[in-house]
Write a structure and sequence with these properties.
Layout lengths: L1 H16 L1 H30 L10 E8 L2 E5 L3 H10 L3 E15 L4 E9 L3 H5 L5 E2 L15 E4 L1 H6 L11 E4 L2 E8 L15 E4 L3 H4 L15 E6 L5 H18 L8 E7 L8 H39 L1 H7 L18 H25 L15 H41 L9 E7 L7 H16 L4 E7 L10 E5 L12 E7 L3 H5 L3 E4 L13 E5 H7 L9 E4 L2 E9 L14 E5 L8 E8 L7 H11 L9 E2 H8 L1 H35 L1 H9 L4 H31 L14 H26 L4 H5 L3
Parallel strand pairs: 4-9, 6-8, 15-20, 17-19
Antiparallel strand pairs: 1-2, 1-10, 1-11, 3-4, 3-7, 3-10, 5-8, 6-9, 7-8, 12-21, 12-22, 13-21, 14-15, 14-18, 16-19, 17-20, 18-19
């Protein structure tokens, strides 16, 4: 142990003697290790940290699936009831539903994430309350009968000042009084890594907390997320087979009238921890890419420090020769780390690996044969110098190659994002605002709610600079993705074709406010009242699919229990994603559909839309003083947020690619500078014998050019291999995009040559007299 301590002290003294070297090495490694730790911290939080429940490995998510469709969907309440009561493989089955809620704290109304759950939810998860109790079975049986709530520890601590007398008190959730019966443990944050509920209420109180008409009796209204706990000794495969049999029996008892037969599928709850299964899988792919990217950055950083170490090793050859006379001594370091310290452990391991990577090459150089001859030599032998140059060149080649891989990856993402943003969304995002209006945050019956909505629109339309304003239940590229089952006279669906189309419910002036072109007929306006003929506006894709070669104006279709007459045709747009193919879409009037409490207000202005933000907020505060203030966005901002799935990876990969490029260029510059310093004597002689500037420049540059070309060549091969794996993440650009590869390789080569040229140019200014005295 004393030898180890001595070595550590010696190492610190050496760093103190070379503060410049120490600073560069530490900053370089800190950038690489810090980037890896930052990404892993997020990955650990979202994907790896065990769910805060009892025996999380026994917990499974249950999804509804359909024949011929591989998507995993929520389930209806009747399906949940059957799964709970008729299975033999689960010790408990619970259901839950996330939704934003308005929680009235001691200060002001506050929008939080809430969760409506079945009465056995906490029991199935094995979660015991910190204070009070959780729900009783009877509190989740009678619709609207038990207004009780459980608060999260964080909400209790921050918003209710850790009040230990909170049990039994009333809190306002969506402006309705709920009695607090319990507080969850500090570490319980729910089943979703990205959503931390602040309050839980019984699922039977859904009408008080959700602004949409959700049914507890309709078997074809899927909205619940189901979670179940496997019985001891039952495997996931056995449980999956058993519930498929149950699904088949239910299908016989309740044959589907709206589409293909239903079934149930199971996945480990850990795989369904970010919104949906597809979202979790997508996040895993993105983070796998980001972990690879930051790993490459760390590798480049290690190569940089290794080159610095090689450079310093020349000055320490005599010292190292003396120290290797001592017998080696190994002292194992035992680390007793708790499994909860996963990020710390990861960073520690990363630091050790980095130390091995950047120290291995100099160490190997130090134990080469002939090392002890250094005790008698003033300068290294020619063979040793060549070996060291080859090692340094190999490290620089690797840096350049890895940097090119990252640059190509970032370029492909950037080009994909560029193509995505060029797509016409079907509306005009300029000079417009989007304002979420959630009357579900308060207790507004239909008459009061519709009056609120009309007053809001009328007042906003009178604001200076406002051109038009309208309400809509959904937004193109929004989060709801509303659909409706339709039936069209004369159209025979193909086998397996689902007549479920994308739809929206909008108010008058909606198409003008959104800047959506009306190609035929008219839009929805004030003529479309509750008592007038039900009408609809469809898009081109719907007209061409169901009435090809005919004028669709006046045609009719059935949906939501009504017959709708087509009065207008709008231009096709993008409704779920910018990279989607054209799909049928229709809009119905707000006045002719069921009352909905959660809407969007779209406002088109004559100039900068931001000028209208504060006046609109003031109107909202006057009309709904108990509602939390909404987040206002320009329509351009709304559009930008809708492409974050593409923009986010592109920005992160781009940032790390630039970091890798900077590190690689520093490596090239360092090697060339070291090479010039080692050849000062030789260059001075050449200049003294008559070599001109261009000859010296060419002599020094030759090594850098060869190294750069080799790095770019190897990097191109590696990038070509990797790009194929990125195909599924790209839009509008081929994995082997010639423009991306050309710009990345030529740009990197140019910058590398500049990094070579600077020390080479300095070499041409060597003073022959000084060089001849140089050792």
């Amino acid at each position: 142990m004393s030898s180890l301590i001595q070595d550590l002290k010696y190492g610190l003294r050496q760093l103190g003697r070379s503060p410049g070297f120490a600073a560069v090495a530490i900053v370089t490694l800190a950038l690489g290790i810090g980037a890896n730790t930052a990404i892993f911290t997020v990955v650990n939080s979202l994907l790896f940290r065990p769910l805060p429940v009892e025996q999380p490995s026994r917990l499974v998510a249950v999804f509804t699936t359909h024949k011929g469709d591989d998507t995993f969907n929520p389930s209806s309440y009747p399906d949940y009831s059957d799964l709970r009561d008729r299975n033999r493989v689960f010790s408990g089955v619970a259901a839950h539903f996330y939704w934003p809620m308005n929680l009235k704290t001691s200060e002001r109304p506050k929008a939080v994430m809430g969760e409506a759950v079945t009465g056995n939810y906490f029991d199935v998860l094995g979660v015991r309350p910190f204070l009070g109790r959780t729900f009783l079975p009877e509190e989740a049986r009678n619709p609207g009968g038990h207004a009780v709530a459980v608060l999260s520890y964080r909400t209790w601590e921050q918003d209710f000042n850790s009040d230990r007398e909170i049990i039994g008190k009333k809190v306002l959730v969506n402006d309705f009084p709920f009695t607090v019966i319990g507080v969850t443990p500090r570490d319980f944050t729910g089943l979703n890594s990205a959503i931390v509920p602040a309050v839980w209420v019984p699922v039977t109180m859904i009408r008080r907390v959700i602004p949409y008409p959700i049914s507890l009796t309709d078997r074809y209204d899927p909205w619940l997320l189901i979670v179940a706990r496997l019985k001891p000794g039952v495997s996931l495969a056995e449980a999956g087979a058993a519930i498929k049999v149950l699904a088949a029996n239910l299908d016989k008892e309740y044959p589907s009238t709206v589409g293909p037969a239903k079934s149930f599928s199971l996945v480990q709850s850990n795989r369904n921890r970010i919104g949906t299964l597809s979202t979790t899988d997508g996040v895993q792919r993105v983070f796998a890419l980001l972990m690879m990217v930051v790993g490459v950055v760390l590798l480049i950083a290690c190569f940089n420090v290794a080159n610095l170490q090689l450079t310093r090793a020349t000055g320490r050859r005599r010292e190292i020769a003396l120290r290797t006379l001592q017998p080696p001594s190994l002292f194992p370091v035992e680390l007793n780390l708790s499994p909860d310290w996963q990020v710390f452990l990861y960073t520690l391991l990363l630091s050790v690996v980095a130390g091995i990577l950047f120290g291995l090459s100099p160490a190997l150089q130090s134990i080469q044969p002939g090392q002890f001859a250094a005790l008698k030599e003033q300068t290294p032998t020619l063979g040793q110098s060549r070996r060291k140059r080859r090692t340094q060149d190999a490290l620089v080649v690797a840096q350049i190659a890895l940097s090119l891989v990252l640059l190509v990856t970032a370029g492909l993402f950037a080009r994909s994002l560029q193509h995505t943003l060029r797509v016409n969304p079907g509306f005009d995002p300029r000079n417009a605002l989007v304002v979420p209006v959630d009357l579900g945050f308060g207790q507004y019956p239909e008459s009061e709610g519709r009056e609120f909505e009309q007053n809001l629109v009328n007042r906003v339309r009178t604001l200076p600079g406002v051109k038009s304003a309208a309400l809509a239940v959904d937004m193109p590229l929004g989060q709801l993705h509303l659909h409706g089952l339709v039936s069209i006279d004369g159209y025979v669906p193909a086998p397996g074709e689902q007549m479920v189309l994308r739809r929206n419910v909008v108010g008058s002036e909606y198409f003008q406010a959104m800047g959506i072109p009306i190609l035929q007929g008219r839009g929805i306006d004030n003529r479309d009242t509750k008592d007038s003929r039900p009408v609809a506006v469809i898009n081109q894709a719907m007209a061409e699919r169901y009435w090809p070669g005919r004028d669709p104006i006046g045609e009719k279709f059935e949906s939501s229990g009504k017959t709708w007459a087509v009065v207008g045709v709008i231009k096709d747009g993008k409704y779920d994603a910018l990279n989607e193919a054209s799909q049928p879409y229709f809009c119905l009037p707000l006045s002719q559909t069921d009352y909905v409490k959660r809407l969007y207000l779209v406002v088109r202005t004559l100039g900068n839309p931001r000028a209208a933000m504060m006046p609109i907020l003031q109107i909202l505060r006057e009309l709904g003083p108990n509602l939390p203030s909404p987040r206002l966005l320009t329509l351009n901002q709304f559009l930008e947020e809708s492409v974050q799935g593409t923009a986010g990876p592109a920005q992160v990969v781009g940032a790390f690619a630039l970091l890798a490029l900077a590190l690689a260029l520093v490596g090239v510059y360092g090697v060339m500078s070291y090479s010039v310093s080692q050849r000062t004597h030789e260059l001075g002689i050449r200049i003294a014998l008559g070599a001109n500037r261009n000859q010296v420049l060419s002599l020094v540059l030759r090594r850098g050019v060869v190294v750069s070309l080799l790095g770019v060549g190897i990097g191109l091969v590696a990038a070509l291999a990797l790009s194929r794996a990125l195909a599924g993440l790209l839009y509008g650009v081929k994995p082997m995009d010639a423009i991306t590869f050309s710009f990345a390789s030529l740009g990197l080569l140019l910058l590398a040559l500049i990094a070579c040229y600077i020390p080479a140019s300095r070499a041409t200014k060597v003073d022959p007299m000084e060089a001849l005295r140089y050792e």
